[in-house]
Specification:
L,D-transpeptidase catalytic domain-like; 173 residues; 1 helix; 36% strand; mainly beta; globular; three-stranded antiparallel beta sheet
């Protein structure tokens, strides 16, 4: 099909996502958008660039698996993502408990009910250049993210049914 194009608004904390003739509101990082070469762990910025769609984590207790060509991986309560640049598992999924810094993927809120893992800083991960860059479910009012792209759950489900294996998420100025 075609890439998913994200265009930030003037403040860089929200914008529009377009794919195959649909246009969707999205939330972006509270630190705005930055070139990937300037992205740093914890800066809250969404990295500009073209990021492959790797796989989808799904809370099957909350969301029925969508029809998608992307690999679907069920989430469980022991799943996390390492965000500690000093750890060898940096920017990789981990099992909890985990001693180094990490993010829990099994959350009480609904933002991680569906998580599309984006191929930002993962081949191989470079310590400190950003981790856990996802496309996920937006908070109410499209509140800014920690550096991810977020859309309404219904919109994310629609996207997952439409994407091809060759598609990527392109975040541009």
């Amino acid at each position: 099909m075609s890439d998913i194009i994200v265009t930030p608004d003037a403040d860089g904390c929200a914008g529009w996502l377009e794919h195959g003739g649909i246009r969707i509101r999205c939330a972006l990082g509270k630190g705005g958008c930055k070139p990937a070469s300037e992205k740093r762990e914890g800066d809250g910025a969404t990295p500009l660039g073209r990021w492959p769609l790797r796989l989808v984590f799904i809370r099957q207790d909350r969301v029925a698996p969508p029809r998608s060509v992307l690999p679907l991986v069920p989430l469980d309560s022991a799943m996390g993502w390492c965000d500690d640049p000093a750890d060898p598992a940096y920017n990789r999924p981990v099992r909890l408990p985990f001693a180094a810094g990490h993010e829990k993927l099994w959350r009480e809120d609904h933002v991680y009910d569906l998580i599309v893992v984006l191929g930002h800083n993962d081949d191989p991960p470079v310590p400190g250049l950003g981790s856990a860059t996802f496309l996920h479910v937006a908070r109410d009012g499209y509140a800014p993210t920690e550096g991810c792209v977020a859309v309404r759950r219904e919109d994310l489900l629609t996207l997952l049914e439409r994407v091809s294996l060759d598609d990527a998420l392109v975040i541009r100025n």
